[in-house]
Amino acid sequence: MPFFFYVLHIPLIHLLALFTAMATVDDYSFMWSNLPPWMWPDGYGFGLPVVYAVWVFVIALLYWPCKWFAGVKQRHPHAALSYL
């Protein structure tokens, strides 16, 4: 189950970061480069309280797919599902 959560949360967080960049800065092309954080444009990002709120949101949002997948694994004990 932890790997299933891991596989889901990485693209979700990256998508949220992209939406954040689109909403807060004019040129969000830095999202596709390998710039260090100190070279990111001014105005991108949020403070720690917002980061914690997003963390709680991601956990709550991914609870339901993980719960669904736990049921799938329980109903279908296929060996390939044990890897997720």
Describe this protein's structure.
- It is built from two helices and no strands.
- The longest helix is centred in the C-terminal third of the chain and has 28 residues, at 48-75.
- It has one domain.
- Helix 1 packs antiparallel against helix 2 (48-75).
- It is an all-alpha fold.
- The radius of gyration is 17 Å and the shape is elongated.
- The mean pLDDT is 87.
Distance between the termini: 6 Å
Number of domains in the coordinates? 1
- Work out the helix count: 2
In sequence order, what are the helices and strands, one letter per element? Answer: HH
Helix content range = 55-70%
Gross morphology: elongated
Largest sheet: none
- Count every beta strand, where a strand is a DSSP E run of 2 or more residues: 0
Oligomer: single chain
Q: What amount of the residues lies in strands?
A: under 5%
- Average of per-residue pLDDT values: 87
The parts where pLDDT drops under 50 for at least 5 residues are none
Structural class: mainly alpha
Please state the CA-atom Rg, rounded to the nearest Å: 17 Å
Main features:
84 residues; elongated; mainly alpha
Topology summary:
Elements: H1 2-24, H2 48-75
Helix pairs in contact: 1-2
TL;DR?
The protein has 84 residues and is mainly alpha-helical. It has two helices and no strands.
